[in-house]
């Protein structure tokens, strides 16, 4: 092993490579992802401190009237203990990782990816990036479908920095912005839904119900955000038979 080869490997030339292969590219939040990580040795022997996997997404943070895109790691796990990778060697590591319930779904501008990295001292760490499609939990899917059944159309879905009082495990929430197309068109400007916490059996949601301005008094109310009503409620699987009626009752109460 020449000094020159070591020098090249330290800047990523002729060094180890990593490739993550998942069983599929679409998952439901809360589902177990399975696959394998393939590591191939380069032109020199290298000591790998660890292999890590992380589930990442981006969100918008506003500061001083400017929007900044930040990366958030929803989960990061250590796959291996330190090991030596000899020249040209190939190692395969099976992986199993549960996608957090709070993983934003693939809608609008939202993207989610799996980042794989090798920690190698005194070298550029090799990495791999695999985008996945994330579907909502069964319960969240029923909630979004029920909103659509009430005559609302999804206009935008985006992850934004969450106010501290609504912040859970992560610094952001995914907002679903709907516009009324049916019976609520004359009463509401928009409806926003945020999932604050989820499991297989329940979901805590925050609904922002934005009424239309009516007359000069309502105009000033809108200017002060007094036309917006916030409703925090929990939906469980027991609510499924009457879910649409329950959501309709909440919305109608605030128009």
TrEMBL record:
InterPro entries for the chain: Spore_0_M
Domain of life: Bacteria
Protein's name according to its UniProt entry: Sporulation protein SpoOM
Source organism of the structure: Lysinibacillus macroides
